[in-house]
Amino acid sequence: MSTHRYLIALGSNQRHPMFGRPRDVLQVAIDRMSSAVGAVLAQSPIITSAPIGPSQRRYANGAVVISTNREPEDLLESLQELEQVLGRERRGQRWRARTLDLDIVLWCGGILSQEHLQIPHPAFREREFVLGPAMAVAAGWRDPVTGLTIKQLHSRLTKPKPTPR
What we know:
- There is one protein chain.
- This protein has helices at about 20-35, 70-85, 130-140, 150-160, and strands spanning about 5-10, 40-45, 45-50, 60-70, 100-105, 110-115, 120.
- The chain is α+β, with helices and mostly antiparallel strands.
- It has a single domain, classed as 2-Layer Sandwich (Alpha-Beta Plaits).
C-alpha cells in the first residue's frame, strides 16, 4: 500500500455538549484524526470566519495535512464517520449550522472526479477560510487544475481590488 498526503479543511459553528466551543470541537477532531485516519503532519492555527448561506453563527476553521495509506473514498468515509461521532447530522438545509465539517481539499494523487467526491474540492479557490489556514500548512502545494500554489491562490483571492475612478 502506498502512503498518500491529503489537505483537509475543518469547520465548525455549533457547540458540542461534551467538547464545547467550535474551536474546541476542531481540536478534538484533529486529535481523533490521528488515531482514526492517519498521522497529522501539520496543523494550522484555528481562525474565525463569517458564515456562508443562511447560518448566522460564525465559524471556526482550520486545516491539516495528514499522511495515510487510505484511498480517497475510504478516507472520505472515515472523515464522515468522525463528523457523525462528533455530532454532525447530514439532513436538511445546505450550509446550516454544524458541529463539524471535514473536507478533502487536495491530495498527492492530483485530480479525482467521482459522484460523491471531487478532489480538488470544487469551491476551495474562492474560500479565504480554506485558503488562509491551508497557507499555514501547505503554502507550496499546487492546485492540479490551475497549477497555482495555495500561496498564489490565497494572494489572488485576498489582493485588494482596484477602486473605479
